[in-house]
Recover the amino acids of this structure.
């Protein structure tokens, strides 16, 4: 892949998957180019034999020096790959690199690696690795200079683990690397230099010193060897040693052993046979087809050879045509032996690097005398191969995406040509000779640079489709189309059309299909196109539309500004019409006269009524009229064939009385978000004729009386009746809905679900959150139950059967404050894949005096009708050292790996970037780009939309107002509610909504398919991952900052599926009506589902309490005066309960939840997880609600643990936490006047692959706890000794051992941590499987970003997890210190909070070359003066 000068913007990835088109290199204008770079050769400033210690002489050119640092058998990627930067470079090398940003490091890999293997995946230490050379050079250093210095033959480049290309001698590897990073989004030269030296970058771009060996590719391209061969089936011929070759479609046998100079025997195999010879070991019989068939017997030496030849030959003989597929092989020439296959008719050389010259170059292709089809697309040819015009037998020629600028006149020689594909080039004209191809019927000209329709098309009478999408045709003259009487199908989407010119009244009678999508037309008059059958004109700016209705069958005109549509005469053939998302206030009269219309979509208009004649149409089967202003629906006069009716988001108070018994075919009805108080009966008599299967009644004013009216719909499968006024559901009525599969009763006032629900044997989903249910429903006997959501209720206990159905996959019991779970219950729940429970609150009244951030959050995730959850949420209320927060959502669309990896790592990446810069655009952009790189192998082919929100103080005013910085790629969105109004904070990077991104992608010559996706893969132009689509899809985010004020109420984060169904204003109103953020997030997801969403949905709600001066203290409030409605009581289920001698417990505001192994038995669970009944000791005297304190005026707190005799327990504001599923982590405290055990708890998620887990924090990172006051000199001595442990694996702080584990936080001391790690119930805390099946691996670094590539262990094979723990991860407090640890805990009586850590200006920080792993939190900083001596801050980075 040729790179131009330093102005080049990118290097383009290639793809190994057939059917996905990609372009070449990208030049200044973003277009794919393939011109060779200007030759810039500089003499190296160093002696070619200079080694590691060589210096640059005074007279040498410092910018062209080359140094080779050779390191053998090094891991190629990951957190430990290639060693640290300190071990790679000595001080001289680092000083040399710092001298000029045009210097850098190129990693050269050896050629022993199979490129089909995960190039960046973790590998076993026993696996042989390639040699790695670290070459220090400059951006002007050429391949020729590098090869001369190291006596090499050439260099190769591989992008995104894909194809491998030989570099031209004049190309400059380091400049290519810098151009690639600049195109990604890095802007600072120093940062580009640092990123170029990062070993993780090898997943994106990698250089090889020799072509890597790919055994699989060699097998599919060419097989040869010397074997015993016998010709014929008789015994007359003897066995002889001969050279045998299998290439293309033929078996080639040499007449002389070990030589190809003699006669060659060719055996065509297509249509022939290959059979095993049973009476001879490892022997195959090859036979050709036809009456003159020949046979050869080949005896192989080994079983491996036998199987390899049998497998490849079987593929050849099974072909019906003589096809040779050599696509995506990184070929530079056709294998020489392939020319022996003279019967080849179809040759596919797509996605290679074919050259013209050489023995196997394109100039030799005319040697194939029978070739009919030739595919040379995606070969970066740069010029049209004129040799192809000499293959006169060609009927199909594909030269798409080759950076072609002209077509030679020799194209006229191909008189047999029927299909010519020239898409994705830079063509602006066609030669007149092309008009002589009388048989040409398919011509592809999409995504070129044509400004008008080529005149030569008038002569191509056999071409019936004009494929010119993505060109530059701004004016379309209908008279031009009239002259081309053979064109029936016109595709001019994405052309920038502004005007359709119709000067003459000459009819255009031949055009039947016209596609004008994604242009800039404001009016469209096609009345002269009298035979038009199908019109696509969506996403223009149309205000008027005039058509001829003689033959019109389908009209798609959504997403315009239409107020009316004029069609004459009445389109009697019209069957489908889409007028959604326009400005229609009424439907034209002709709509009611369409006698064959079957589907009508008028959603998102301004309609106030639907014509009665339309509803009584005898042809209409699907009517979508949601999001209008309808106040009534006319009565039905007669039986109608209507099957689907959508009337959601209107103002309907009632439905027609005869709806159900006049529309007997009605199967789908959605009337959510109306004002219905009742529903019509299913039948006027007791006879049941209803066929209704899906009924959505969410968001109305229905009461329990509607239950009796539902009985008649006995075929009902899906019933959503959430957020109504139901006090109960009639038990006798529910029992009759025996076919019910999905039931949503959320947001009502139900106190119980009838026991007759057990009659619904097919029920697999029950959602009843946000009610007042006290008794667990009898649903666990249902044979097909999969999902049960009873969160935010008032459950107290659960009565369980002896066994649970094996189908149960998810159970959500969060938000039930009084729920008590016994050990037997936990044991029965052990097989559930995802079990969500609240964490038991273990705080005291003193906790409420600790500094609490002015926000709390809740979120929800729903899989919809997908069988897996491909979304994830990151929520950290206490981020960093001060009062900060970090929230994010990630949507992988169809994959779950990338969202989980981003959830695990992106917060840590942000923290590291904050150490280097305080400029919001810089640190947010670098966070996304670094996360993109850290995705490794998973990010090559998979991707995800991502949104990250960071709440912080302004750097210039650390104690002043708060600011919100939002960054996003893809379609995830953030909305801020200020004074009740929604303020969008993100930018949707979708080709449909972002015009500038569409233009950028078009300029880079991406192929945008008809469903508006880049290469048919994604509609997003910015994603994390999907690096093989670079430079069309980039990871650079949109960054926006906004100061927060007291009028800001909350923040809503959601993915595409949420905001496609729920508008910004409705989302804001929904959250305002629900106080609890978790319940609000759940309501948003439930509404989106009821509105018709079938995809994964995720929503996060962050409640903000920002005062004018950012102080969040509350004035003292008398307990006798109520202060607004109290928040929901705190849930108290499962927790890790310390023993009697263990005074350490967890703060309720710290977001800490325990995690249990999936293989935990009942007794093991009981030993570690106490139920409320056995472990809770409620106080008989309610404690008054203390005031909430802010970070500006903190109260005296503890170090994050509860100590007997102290005033309370608090948490450190820098505690870094994550959680993967639906939960609310509220730092506000209950004002209900109850004991502290009833205050707002932390919610957990029990989730694993098979059995029980309590899981919230899946992030493993460094964190701090508040230091306390030392009691004696012993303490300081112990502090010192505690920090001397190897690698700092465990350090002492207030005599508490704190371990940041994969998904949990343990605060225990002395022997307890040893016992805890030995316990079968908790030993799995040190390396845990997540709910999606991925694994957070044990690691000794606090920087989990580096380990993320090694995290998920999937059978499909993107990751590999270590088989066992690192021994360094198992350090504990030595026995000699245990007694001192206990005494220190008992003796503490007064502890003060530490002041915030001093910030370090970016200018004073050491560059990456000196500090390869910047700490996640500042370590060993001496705090400022305070009221009492304070222990030295310590960093706890034990990643277990």
């Amino acid at each position: 892949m040729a790179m131009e000068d330093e102005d080049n913007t990118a290097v383009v990835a290639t793809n190994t998957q057939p059917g996905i088109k990609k372009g070449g290199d990208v030049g200044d204008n973003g277009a794919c180019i393939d011109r060779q770079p200007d030759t810039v050769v500089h003499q190296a400033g160093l002696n070619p034999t200079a080694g590691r210690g060589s210096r640059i002489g005074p007279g040498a050119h410092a910018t062209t020096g080359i140094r080779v640092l050779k390191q053998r058998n090094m891991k190629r990627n990951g957190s430990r790959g290639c060693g640290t930067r300190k071990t790679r470079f000595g001080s001289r090398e680092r000083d040399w690199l710092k001298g000029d940003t045009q210097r850098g490091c190129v990693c050269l890999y050896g050629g022993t690696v199979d490129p089909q293997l995960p190039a960046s995946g973790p590998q076993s230490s026993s696996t042989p690795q390639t040699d790695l050379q670290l070459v220090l050079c400059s951006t002007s250093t050429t391949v020729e200079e590098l090869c001369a210095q190291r006596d090499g033959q050439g260099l190769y480049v591989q992008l995104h683990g894909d194809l491998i290309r030989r570099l031209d001698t004049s190309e400059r590897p380091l400049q290519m690397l810098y151009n690639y990073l600049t195109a990604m989004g890095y802007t600072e030269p120093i940062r580009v230099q640092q990123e170029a030296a990062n070993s993780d970058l090898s997943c994106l771009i990698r250089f090889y010193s020799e072509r890597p060996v790919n055994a699989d590719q060699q097998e599919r391209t060419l097989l040869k060897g010397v074997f015993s061969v016998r010709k014929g089936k008789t015994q007359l011929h003897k066995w002889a040693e001969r050279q045998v070759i299998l290439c293309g479609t033929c078996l080639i046998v040499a007449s002389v052993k070990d030589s190809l100079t003699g006669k060659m025997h060719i055996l065509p195999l297509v249509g022939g046979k290959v059979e095993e010879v049973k009476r001879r070991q490892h022997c195959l019989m090859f036979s050709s087809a036809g009456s003159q068939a020949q046979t050869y017997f080949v005896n192989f030496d080994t079983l491996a050879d036998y199987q390899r030849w049998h497998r490849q030959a079987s593929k050849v003989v099974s072909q019906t045509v003589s096809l040779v597929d050599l696509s995506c092989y990184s070929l530079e020439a056709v294998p020489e032996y392939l020319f022996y296959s003279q019967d080849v008719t179809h040759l596919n050389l797509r996605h290679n690097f074919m050259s013209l010259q050489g023995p196997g170059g394109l100039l030799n292709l005319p040697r194939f005398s029978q070739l009919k089809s030739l595919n040379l697309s995606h070969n970066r040819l740069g010029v049209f191969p004129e040799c192809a015009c000499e293959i006169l037998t060609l009927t199909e020629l594909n030269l798409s995406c080759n950076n072609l600028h002209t077509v030679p006149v020799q194209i006229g020689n191909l008189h047999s040509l029927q299909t010519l594909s020239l898409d994705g080039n830079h063509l602006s004209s066609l030669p007149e000779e092309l008009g002589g191809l009388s048989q040409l019927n398919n011509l592809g000209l999409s995504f070129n640079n044509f400004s008008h329709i080529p005149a030569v098309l008038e002569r191509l009478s056999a071409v019936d489709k004009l494929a010119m999408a993505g060109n530059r045709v701004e004016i379309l003259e209908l008279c031009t189309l009239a002259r081309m009487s053979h064109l029936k199908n016109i595709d001019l989407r994405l052309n920038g059309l502004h005007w359709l010119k119709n000067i003459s009244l000459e009819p255009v009678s031949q055009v039947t299909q016209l596609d004008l999508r994604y242009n800039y037309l404001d009016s469209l008059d096609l009345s002269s196109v009298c035979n038009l059958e199908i019109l696509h004109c969506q996403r223009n700016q149309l205000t008027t539309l005039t058509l001829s209705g003689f033959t019109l069958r389908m009209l798609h005109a959504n997403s315009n500004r239409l107020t009316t549509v004029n069609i004459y005469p009445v389109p009697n053939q019209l069957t489908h019409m889409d007028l959604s998302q326009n400005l229609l206030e009424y439907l034209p009269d002709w709509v009611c006269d369409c006698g064959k219309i079957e589907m009508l979509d008028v959603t998102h208009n301004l309609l106030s009524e639907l014509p009665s004649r339309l509803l009584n149409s005898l042809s209409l089967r699907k009517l979508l009229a949601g999001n209008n202003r309808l106040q009534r629906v006319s009565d039905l006069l007669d039986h109608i064939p209507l099957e689907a009716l959508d009337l959601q988001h209107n103002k309907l108070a009632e439905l027609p009385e005869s709806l159900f018994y006049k529309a007997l075919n009605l199967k789908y009805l959605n009337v959510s978000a109306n004002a219905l108080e009742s529903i019509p009966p299913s039948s006027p008599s007791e006879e049941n004729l209803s066929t209704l299967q899906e009924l959505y009644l969410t968001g109305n004013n229905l009461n329990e009386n509607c239950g009796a009216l539902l009985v008649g719909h006995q075929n009902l499968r899906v019933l959503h009746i959430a957020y109504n006024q139901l006090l109960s559901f009639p038990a006798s009525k529910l029992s009759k809905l025996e076919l019910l599969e999905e039931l949503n009763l959320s947001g009502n006032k139900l106190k119980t679900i009838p026991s007759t629900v057990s009659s619904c044997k097919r029920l697999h989903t029950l959602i009843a959150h946000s009610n007042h249910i006290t008794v667990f429903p009898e649903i666990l006997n249902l044979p097909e139950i999969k999902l049960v959501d009873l969160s935010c209720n008032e459950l107290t206990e659960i009565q369980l059967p002896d066994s649970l159905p094996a189908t149960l996959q998810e159970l959500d019991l969060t938000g039930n404050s009084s729920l008590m779970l016994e050990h037997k219950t936990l044991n029965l729940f052990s097989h559930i894949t995802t079990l969500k429970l609240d964490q038991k609150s273990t705080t005291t009244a003193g906790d409420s005096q600790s500094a609490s951030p002015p926000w709390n959050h809740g979120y929800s995730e729903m899989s919809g009708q997908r069988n897996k959850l491909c979304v994830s949420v990151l929520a950290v209320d206490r981020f960093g050292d001060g009062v900060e927060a970090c929230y994010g959502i990630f949507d992988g669309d169809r994959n779950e790996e990338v969202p989980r990896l981003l959830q695990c790592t992106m917060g840590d990446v942000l923290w590291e970037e904050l150490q280097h810069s305080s400029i919001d655009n810089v640190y947010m952009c670098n966070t996304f780009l670094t996360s993109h790189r850290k995705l490794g192998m998973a990010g090559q082919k998979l991707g995800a939309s991502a949104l990250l929100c960071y709440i912080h103080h302004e750097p210039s005013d650390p104690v002043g107002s708060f600011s919100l910085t939002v960054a996003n790629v893809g379609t995830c969105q953030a909305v801020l509610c200020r004074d009740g109004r929604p303020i969008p904070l993100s930018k949707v990077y979708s080709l449909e909504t972002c015009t500038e991104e569409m233009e950028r992608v078009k300029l880079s010559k991406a192929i945008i398919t008809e469903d508006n996706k880049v290469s048919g893969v994604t509609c997003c132009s910015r994603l994390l991952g999907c690096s093989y689509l670079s430079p069309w899809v980039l990871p650079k985010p949109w960054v926006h900052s906004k100061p927060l004020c007291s009028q800001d109420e909350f923040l809503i984060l959601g993915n595409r599926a949420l905001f496609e169904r729920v508008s910004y204003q409705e989302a804001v109103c929904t959250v305002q009506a629900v106080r609890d953020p978790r319940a609000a997030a759940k309501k948003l997801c439930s509404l989106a589902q009821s509105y018709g969403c079938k995809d994964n949905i995720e929503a996060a709600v962050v409640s903000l309490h920002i005062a004018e001066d950012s102080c969040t203290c509350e004035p003292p409030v008398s307990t006798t005066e109520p202060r607004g409605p109290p928040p929901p009581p705190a849930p108290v289920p499962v927790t890790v309960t310390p023993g009697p001698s263990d005074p350490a417990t967890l703060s309720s505001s710290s977001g800490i939840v325990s995690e249990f192994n999936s293989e935990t038995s009942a007794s093991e669970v009981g030993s570690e997880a106490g139920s409320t009944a056995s472990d809770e000791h409620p106080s008989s005297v309610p404690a008054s609600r203390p005031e909430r304190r802010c970070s500006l005026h903190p109260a005296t707190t503890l170090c994050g643990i509860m100590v007997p005799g102290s005033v309370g327990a608090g948490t450190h504001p820098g505690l870094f936490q994550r959680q993967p599923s639906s939960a609310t982590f509220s730092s506000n405290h209950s004002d209900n006047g109850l004991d502290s055990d009833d205050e707002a708890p932390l919610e957990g998620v029990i989730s694993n692959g098979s059995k029980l887990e309590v899981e919230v924090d899946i992030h493993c990172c460094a964190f701090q706890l508040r230091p306390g006051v030392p009691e004696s000199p012993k303490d300081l001595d112990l502090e010192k000794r505690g920090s001397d442990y190897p690698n700092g694996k465990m350090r002492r702080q207030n005599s508490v051992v704190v371990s940041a584990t994969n998904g949990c936080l343990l605060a225990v001391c002395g022997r307890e941590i040893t016992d805890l790690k030995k316990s079968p119930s908790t030993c799995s805390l040190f390396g845990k499987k997540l709910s999606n099946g991925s694994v957070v691996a044990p690691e000794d670094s606090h920087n989990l970003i580096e380990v993320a590539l090694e995290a998920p262990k999937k059978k499909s094979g993107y990751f590999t997890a270590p088989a066992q723990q690192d021994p360094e991860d198992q350090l504990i407090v030595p026995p000699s210190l245990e007694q001192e640890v206990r005494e220190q805990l008992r003796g503490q009586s007064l502890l003060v909070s530490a002041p915030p850590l001093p910030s370090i200006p970016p200018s004073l920080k050491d560059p990456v070359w000196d500090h390869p792993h910047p700490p996640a939190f500042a370590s060993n900083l001496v705090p400022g003066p305070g009221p009492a001596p304070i222990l030295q801050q310590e960093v706890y980075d034990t990643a277990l």
Summary: Residues 263 and 801 are 81 Å apart (CA to CA). Residues 897-914 form the longest helix (18 residues). The two ends are 44 Å apart (CA to CA). The mean pLDDT is 75.
